[in-house]
Amino acid sequence: MTDPTDTPYPAAQLHFGVFFQGVNHWTIWSDPTSGSQIDPASYRRVAQTAERGLFDAFFLGEGLRLREVDGRVHDLDIAGRPDAITQLAALAAVTDRIGLVSTSNTTFNEPVDLAHRLSSLDLLSDGRAGWNVVTTDNAWTGANFRRGGYLDHADRYVRAEQFLTVARAMWDSWDDDAIAATRQAQSWADRSAISPVRVRSTQFDVEIVPTLPRSPQGHPVIFQAGDSGEGRDFAARNADVIFSAHGTDFDDALAFATDVRARLRAAGRPDDDIRILPGTEIIIGDTEAEAQEKLHWVRRGQVTPRTALTIAGLVWNRDLSDRDADGPLPAEDPIVAENDGSFGSRRTKDPYAVVRSWREQAEANHWTLREAVIALGPQRGHVGTPSGLADRFAHFVRHGAVDGFNVSPYIIPDGLDDIVDKLVPELQERGVYRTAYAGTTLREHLGLRPPLTHRAADRRRAG
Amino acid sequence: MTLHLAVEIDGDGDHPEAWRRATHPPRELLTPRRVARVAAIAENAGFTLVTLDDEVLPPAGVAGRVGAIERAAFVAASTSVLAVAPVVSTTYAEPFHVSSQLATLDHLSAGRAGWVVSASADAAAARAWGRPQVPAEGLGNEARDAMTVVVDLWDSWEDDAVIRDVTTSRYLDRDRLHYIDFTGDTFAVKGPAIVPRPPQGRPVVFAPPALIDAGVNADVALVSRPTRATAAARTFVEVEIALDTADATAEARIAALGGWPNTDRQRYTGTAAGLVAWLAAVHGQVDGVRLHALVLDEDLAVLSSLVVPSLLEAGVVARPLPGATLRTTLGLPRPVSRFAAPSTLAEVR
């Protein structure tokens, strides 16, 4: 183990979130221990296990349309999940400390509704709410909403940023002493201490009298996941936490973190103002061999023969469902097609190049189609023994490559048990993981500064 | 059939100035502890249901309000037999979201969810949403269309759509999932839902006669006179109450708040025993009552210590049974998905 004082961030602490995915093939459903994706007991179990493991946050994604392949509902993966904020409000009643983060869209929501829901969650949890801000623009998703596919792709971050401006104005609209101290007061609230929000921008024309005060953490913590340059700049201006896709390879993670720090400085923020929590999967074995064996089991559970044919079908843009997954790669060339936003059309940019590379590697390694899909799919996650993983994670965090991980269990609801029971104690022994919650709010868990608009207000008052 | 008791638990009571007589300081109103405490009193007393009022505009009197769906979810997780029905407006909200939220509430309460359908007439609501105002004469149609979409989305997953068939690698049977393909006057929704069918099939829908007349298909009519409605399977009458407490008569309590203007609802003011007699008398004329208390902290205390125990003893009301859904408690059948193929049903039978 390296001496932490020789590292750039010797006092750095690792933060864990848990991402209950509710969709896609990374959650195995075929194993007998796999539980319900909708029963509240599954959510309670995962959240309470994470809280036992002193995690910062419990994280839910968002579904606005069931995934489709070739115009039909995709039937191989788990699907069918709760509305995130509603589910999290229930979890607020059965947890005490863990943060509760909802992924919610700025395109198919309006601030008066969504910002108020997030405030409601924040108050019901005594300051534990987070919001993963996501944008969508496609008409395929819009088909479930009043305005349809009204938003140009180029405007999705414009709307998101304007949405955040309205949301923050709503969250800042009540002075902290707006509510009367006693029942003898002249009115329940001092109306002059509640500022109406009037916004006219290219995306919004609203006039709102907000109905909630700030929570103990000021604002819900803002998460952001976009990886494009535009998304990273949006995060640098607005986010408290980045839920990145750069957490497997150390150099890749460090390059991403370095890029984010540069963008933060450019945005006029301190370069430690954002926590970087890549999404990941953690597979633990008591020995390296056992961990590798479990990895093999997990991947084969995730990528069933039919799932392999579907994934390969997305690369080739051909229906391969009648092929043998344990046979060779398809001999045909891929077809280039448009992306309409549905799962089944999220196709590779240059399918010819991808297929060529798949063929070369499959030939060199004597892989079947399914083996190729497993080996060449996104190499996400960390595999090892508790002590090996703890060393690796301590290295990541003390070198500023990540601030922690948002972990997706490959099985629900027991998939977090190994991490909490075996990995967390090893991390604590290395001094990179808390041994008790120090604060009560999500903002405190993450060690974040006050909300951005509060700092501006504080500066105005000081100046 | 026993009489079902519902109580509206928004804010500090029905009176805009109710907060002055609350047992807690104003800043306690918006805390989770307050929400959980009121729900626990109602559950322990033996109420069938609590409702939670909502609108994007500030309520009269107090300026703050936690969202009804979020409070309902919190209450559902803090209780075990009490049903919970948030008020959700149909005028500007996205029907897709409303359907998902209420379906989620039904899942996390194991079938104890209801929905009090409302409409937003105020121009300020349109300005807050940033939408053109729906004129008064359009509110009913909007409610009908939104309600149709919400219910169709609940039906869009048949009960057994999750098959987990390891032999074919299929998690879902897509033949049991349905596009709703709704097209109305002002919007269209494709479906299917993202939430599996709720435990009750459809959470119980409550609506006032005006919206039922406009085409909202409700399970329970919320009426202002104790006469059974014909357009819904069940009828609850809306009753405002102010009860004598150990410290003050109902009249004195109303006077202390500067009076209580009459509405079109029923109103009872007086002793607990008088309310017990009044409720015993309406039993048989309607299926339930929804109580709107002058001051929750005062009137709910009297309801739970005197009124409900007397009604339980007299057999006029019954506690909801552990494990029962709200539909079961109200004696309502569990609806079959309207998309379910008849042949499948025949096989099930």
The helix/strand order of chain B is EHEHEHEHHEEEEEHEEHEHEHHH
Number of strands of chain B: 13
Radius of gyration of chain A: 23 Å
Query: Can you summarize the main beta sheet of chain A?
Result: 9 strands, parallel
Question: Helix amount of chain A, in percent?
Answer: 25-40%
Order of helices and strands of chain A: EHEEEHEHEHHEEEHEHEEEHHHHEHEHHH
Note the beta-strand portion of chain B.
Answer: 15-25%
Estimate percent helicity of chain B: 25-40%
Oligomerization state? heterodimer
Distance separating the two termini of chain B: 28 Å
The chain-level mean pLDDT of chain B equals: 96
Describe the structure.
The complex is a heterodimer of chains A (463) and B (349). Chain A has 463 residues and is α/β, with parallel strands linked by helices. Chain A is globular, with a radius of gyration of 23 Å. In chain A, helix 3 packs across helix 5 and helix 6 crosses helix 7. The mean pLDDT of chain A is 94. The longest helix of chain A has 17 residues. By secondary structure, chain B is α/β, with parallel strands linked by helices. Chain B contains 11 helices and 13 strands. In chain B, helix 1 packs across helix 2, helix 2 packs parallel to helix 3 and helix 3 crosses helix 5. Classes of the chains: A alpha/beta (463), B alpha/beta (349).
In short:
With 463 residues, chain A is of the alpha/beta class. In chain A, 38% of the residues lie in helices and 12% in strands. Chain A has a 9-stranded parallel β-sheet with strand order 11-10-9-6-5-2-1-15-12. In chain A, strands 3-4 form a two-stranded antiparallel sheet. Chain A has a two-stranded antiparallel ribbon with strand order 7-8.
Index terms:
heterodimer; A: 463 residues; alpha/beta; nine-stranded parallel beta sheet; two-stranded antiparallel sheet; 15 helices; 38% helix; B: 349 residues; eight-stranded parallel beta barrel; 33% helix; globular
